[in-house]
Specification:
It is globular, with a radius of gyration of 17 Å. β1, α2 and β2 form a beta-alpha-beta unit. By secondary structure, it is α/β, with parallel strands linked by helices. It has a single domain, classed as Alanine racemase (TIM Barrel, Alpha-Beta Barrel). It is built from 8 helices and 8 strands; from the N terminus they run αβαβαβαβαβαβαβαβ. About 40% of the residues are buried.
Length: about 230
Amino acid sequence: MIERLSENLKLIQQRIETSAQKSGRVADDIRLVGVTKSVDVEVTRSLFEAGCTNLGESRPQALWDKSSQLADIPITWHLIGHLQRNKVKRTLACAELIHSVDSLRLIDAIDQAAESPVKILLEVNVSGDAAKHGLKVLDVESVLEHVVQKANVRVEGLMCMAGFESNLDQARREFAVLRTTRDKHSGFQADNIRLVELSMGMSGDFEVAIEEGATMVRVGTSLFEGIG
């Protein structure tokens, strides 16, 4: 299993490198987050042993369980899915970065539950899909102004997903919206706001996301091809 995972990982890293070069960057500029929501603990451990050390889960409960069972290895855990306020405290003990912060109430809950500054990304709904979570583009500035007052919240950047029905051209435009939004607010002056990260792109569109400026891509399906 590890051999196949290593082969898949190498292929994805090569694709990341090619896409980075197209955008005038290098592969080291992009962090690969392996999305392990569809595999069990054994496969997750093997993926880490194959060389993917940043791993992401969509469901807080799955993150809690896997991080506990794999506590013997130094995985950097990411929560990439929706987070409810009643699950914040336990999640903070596991996640290095929360990608999916999408409301003032969730920001307040994180600030209140945290014992030290928590790294987050603001999720932005760039597609306008009613079924998707995320802030409206026009609300990002007011949310950043809210974060300034929070001692235990650090905004590292922005996150998005392409629309459910978006083809690659549409996805590219949506990713460009996130980059433009980040750039628009990049001069925001606050000690707890950096806006350096753009988490966007999954198995079907991560190359386009990289070309549009992604610094993190969230890849699951492509990593596990051939793993039964």
